[in-house]
Each structure stands twice: as structure tokens, then as C-alpha cells.
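User: Quick sanity check before I run a bigger batch. Here is a single chain. Can you write out its predicted 3D structure?
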Amino acid sequence: MPVILQPCPWGKVKCDDGGVLTIGQLAGYVGVTAKTIRVYHAKGLLPEPPRDASGYRRYSAADAVELIKIRTLAEAGVPLARIRELRGGGLLPALKQIDDDLAARIRGLRDTRARLRQLADGRLSALPADVVDHLAELPALGFSERWVALQNDLWLLVFATHPETARANFRDQSAMLTDPALLELVLEYDRVHDLDPHDPRVDALAERLVSATRARYGAELPSYERGSAIPALVQGAVNASSPAWRRLDALMRERLSRATPDRPS
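Assistant: Done. Predicted structure follows.
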């Protein structure tokens, strides 16, 4: 009876040795390292084959097929712990769940990327849309970039800590800028930033601001919740920006307190 010779699927590997491979041969053909195979053994992903008389592991075709499957799943980004679960059965449902999880991660990464692009373009803000629009209009009114940036940061702080009070104060302050006289006062506040704090223009502006404040609010100045540290924090940030602004604040507080001596600070 003639012998039918079958081609060996392992290329140059001899097929007269029982069709087995050493760990190095298996690693080379499948495209992983021997260390990786040992890791798969340790994690229970790939059963460890028996050793031969010389103490070497000998791998069969079935081992190679299993290793290829593991490698394919690992390269697809499936965690090793999940791969072990897949070997227990239910491959298709598990792969569907993995695919769904990856799709969700991709959507999340795309959203994060979009937000980062918005941030880079200056279009991402935790502020309400009308506040963002208001800030965008300030340069056209004549305010400096420094002023707009400071206003953005301070409104972020106020809206995050006192949203209801912030909303009321925002309506009030944005309305101020529709009055030409008040708009000019606020613009001058912006412009004195770089003046010497004892420049006469700082004193004159303080007097005008006090008069306008009394005319607009009387004795009831806008305030935050009693005991809040935010007003002092906000004013401290303003004062830290400019010695002239710091002195302007001190002058206004002094002159306003004369008119309302019983008002808590």
C-alpha cells in the first residue's frame, strides 16, 4: 500500500518527530516570545503541556491554534482576564460585549478629544451660555484681554460656589454695561490697572464709582450669603492683579462705609 505524504504545515519543522514543537519554535512561528507563552501558562490561558524525558515542554498543533487565538484577542485589546473567561465558553456573546465596551470607550475618547479641541480654541467653559456670550462681547466694548480673562475666571468661581447669587449679580452687572455712563466707569476701572496707586486719577475714579454705587443701590449693596468667603476671595484676586486696583478698592470701601456705618463687611 503506497504511503501518502502529507505536507507539514510548519514549514521547515521536521514532521517526523511526532508533530511537536519546542517552546522556542512555537513562539517563533506564532509571533510571540517564549516569555509571553510562560505568562499565558501562569495566568491559565494556555494549558502547560507535559514535558518530555529531557524535561522540555512539547507543544502540539492544538496548542499552536490556541496560542494564535489568544494572541489575536490580545492584539485586539482584550484584557488577559477576559481572554481566560472566553476560553471557558460563550465566545460570541463575550466578544459582542467586548465590542460594545470598546465602542463606548471610542465614543468617550472622541468626546474627550472634542472637549480638548474646544478648550484649545477657547470655546469650552463651565459657565452658562449667556455668560460666555457676554464675555465674548467685552472686547468690542473696549475692554482689555486681561479684563476679559479675569472676569471669566471670577465668574467661574462665583457660579460654581453661589449659582443663584451669581445669576442675580450677573444680570445686574451685564445690565450696567448697557448704560453708557456706567460702561465708561467700568472701562476706566480696567484702564487704571497700570497706574501708580497714588495717581490722582485713581482717587478721582474711586469718588465717581462711590457716587455711582450709591445712586444705583442706595444702602443695599449686592451681597452673597452671609458668612461666605467668596466675596473676599474674588476681591482679593482683583486686588492682587494691580496695586492701583487694590488702592481703588480700599478707597471705595472707606468712603462707602461712611454712608453705611452699620453695614457688615
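The CA atoms of residues 1 and 114 lie 72 Å apart.

User: Great, the batch can go ahead then.
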